[in-house]
């Protein structure tokens, strides 16, 4: 998929594209994430960009989008006030605002993460200890993709991944949820080419 293909397929009213990835970003690649967010926002009209307000990839992609149009950035956060000073999104939705007991599909897919599976029900029942809170991040990652009864799902996931350990950790969970729901994903192997082609023109 080229950048032109991306625009033709996804730049439509109501379209939501996930932009996120690893917290650890190579120093030499940080500016590329900002540039991608900026270019995607500049070259599209309708897409809302969704992220998770995490440090690293989320923040860098979001910074690029907001240089063009902050109103097109939405973040899903694991709790109210999460990284509040760094949250530059126009729209921010916290898990605290969602009645998770009514979101069976979210819980089903969140439990696909074996490391936190046993914590999901504890979190939903109100536990907020340092272990249970780990479930909030996985639930947040699930909602970023499939949404809820009131939040629309995404159409595409654009990721910055660790190419040495691909699809691992929370980013891997998010990518896996995309794939399980037939939502295409691309990583920097694809979108770096978009940047290269853009700078050559």
Structural class: alpha/beta
Order of adjacent strands in the largest pleated sheet: 4-3-2-1-5-6
Span of the ends, CA to CA? 18 Å
Question: How many helical elements?
Answer: 8
Name the beta content range: 5-15%
Number of domains in the coordinates? 1
CATH class: Alpha Beta
Shape field: globular
Helical proportion, percent range:
40-55%
- String of helices and strands: HEHEHEEHHHEHEH
Notes on the protein architecture:
With 201 residues, the protein is an alpha/beta fold. The protein has one domain: Rossmann fold. Helix content is 43%, strand content 13%. The chain has eight helices and six strands, in the order αβαβαββαααβαβα. It has helices at 3-10, 30-42, 57-68, 104-110, 117-124, 133-146, 169-180, 188-200, and strands at residues 16-21, 48-51, 73-77, 91-94, 156-160, 185-186. A six-stranded parallel sheet has the order 4-3-2-1-5-6. The longest helix is centred in the last third of the chain and has 14 residues, at 133-146. The mean pLDDT is 93.
Please give a handful of descriptors for the protein shown:
201 residues; alpha/beta; Rossmann fold; six-stranded parallel beta sheet; 8 helices; 6 strands
């Amino acid at each position: 998929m080229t950048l032109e293909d991306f625009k033709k397929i996804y730049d439509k009213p109501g379209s939501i594209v996930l932009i996120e990835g690893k917290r650890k970003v190579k120093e030499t690649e940080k500016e590329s994430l900002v540039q991608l967010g900026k270019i995607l926002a500049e070259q599209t009209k309708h897409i809302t960009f969704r992220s998770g307000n995490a440090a690293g990839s989320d923040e860098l992609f979001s910074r690029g989008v907001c240089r063009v149009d902050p109103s097109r950035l939405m973040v899903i956060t694991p709790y109210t006030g999460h990284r509040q000073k760094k949250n530059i999104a126009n729209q921010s939705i916290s898990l605290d605002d969602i009645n998770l007991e009514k979101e069976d599909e979210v819980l089903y897919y969140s439990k696909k993460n074996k490391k936190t599976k046993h914590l999901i029900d504890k979190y939903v029942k109100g536990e907020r200890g340092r272990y249970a809170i780990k479930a909030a991040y996985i639930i947040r990652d699930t909602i970023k993709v499939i949404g809820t009864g009131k939040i629309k799902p995404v159409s595409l996931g654009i990721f910055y991944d660790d190419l040495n350990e691909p699809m691992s950790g929370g980013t891997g969970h998010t990518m896996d949820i995309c794939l399980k729901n037939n939502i295409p994903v691309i990583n920097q192997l694809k979108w770096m080419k978009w940047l290269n082609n853009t700078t050559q023109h």
